[in-house]
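Before we proceed, please read the two lines closing this message. Report back on whether the structure tokens fit the sequence:
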Amino acid sequence: MLDFVIFAITFLLILVGAVLYLYPASRQSSGIPGLTPTDEKDGNLQDIVSCGSLHEFLVNLHEKFGPVASFWFGRRLVVSLGSLDLFRQHINPNRTSDPFEMMLKSLLGYQSGAIGDAGESHMRKKLYESGVSRSLQSNFGIILKLSEDMVTKWLSFPVSQHVPLCQHMLGYAMKSVTQTAMGNSFEDEQDLIRFRRNHCAIWEEIGKGFLDGSLEKSTTRKKLYENALMEMESVLKKLAKERRGRSIPRQIFMDALLQGNLSDKQVLEDSMIFSLAGCVITANLCIWAVYFLTTSEDAQEKLYREVTQVLGKGPITLEKIEQLRYCRQVLCETVRTARLTPVAARLQDLEGRVDQHVIPKETLVLYAIGVVLQDSTAWPSAYRFDPDRFDDESARKSLSLLGFVGSQECPELRFAYVVATVLLSVLVRKLRLHPVPGQVIETRYELVTSPKEEAWITVSKRS
């Protein structure tokens, strides 16, 4: 039904399809302003393709129709909300389902816990969060060493040498995730290389092959994907078998799952989601944070002063991270400026209302987070990287409402905040970060926002 051009659609469009597939089709209309279907079968699908991504489509949609707007995905009505006030009206803080987890599980063919009993979902969420916290505590020294190794490597470069930021941050993120999620199994460099190859093979096909059916048309690609998934699952199954029922001093993410009342299948699936999502979120948070610091000497120097004041001559510790307030502001502003995750989604279980508009039951409701993060009425000088804006309590509350801080942030993002804080504290103590003159970074808006091509920086030793 969909032709090759569909490759341009983002991961979150897959989420839309995955959610809608679970519910009976409807052509129910509403009084919400928006687009009429351009195609009887595909709705406004081609309009999304033409814009390049779902986020860019939503930017245009809200510019034309205002903060509440509708369009059609196939034969289903979709409502998009594009303002903080509307988010406040609509968000149910007691929700336990995670759109990120739901989408990945659907695409990987995993079923357990994606949609089900609220009590079970809450229990698994707590176990998942506990796994992240305990693995960070137990493996903090490893993350610190990885950061110090990165600085040592960059210090060895000539002052004028360009550093491939995306490549190095992805490697750093993968080492951090594999060490905290899988422990000693991934201390060997060859194991890490295999993980990186398999991770890339799986993530790439999630981004395109499932959507248009092209994976089924290519025997070679399908075999590569299936082998990668099988190999990663085999490693996780072996690890679970080795660690179940054992008391091991160095805790990893999987241990918390094994100590809960979860089946082997649930442990496997949750470990796989953390391994995949943790790498992508951590890598891109670090990429954008370092890149934005190269563009703002004032922010870089303010961060340096805070780090030296809080840490003195000693190393960063998990306890002292909480004292690095400005560093957290840098990361919050990184999330906002980069629009790190530009769209989220919820299914309207019962008929609802925002302002004067009625949202019909079983309508997919999109939160156009990327639109809101660049709304000048909510964020003065919205396109400027300015960590000082988070001195204001109202700014922090707004980011919390969007799910980027506080109780609503996903465990993978909480993990990424800690890893990125360690990295930045080590970097700014010894290095000055510089932009490459004339470089223009174009953005790829997918489930997690990333640079379209390699981002380059240069570094010099801090005297």
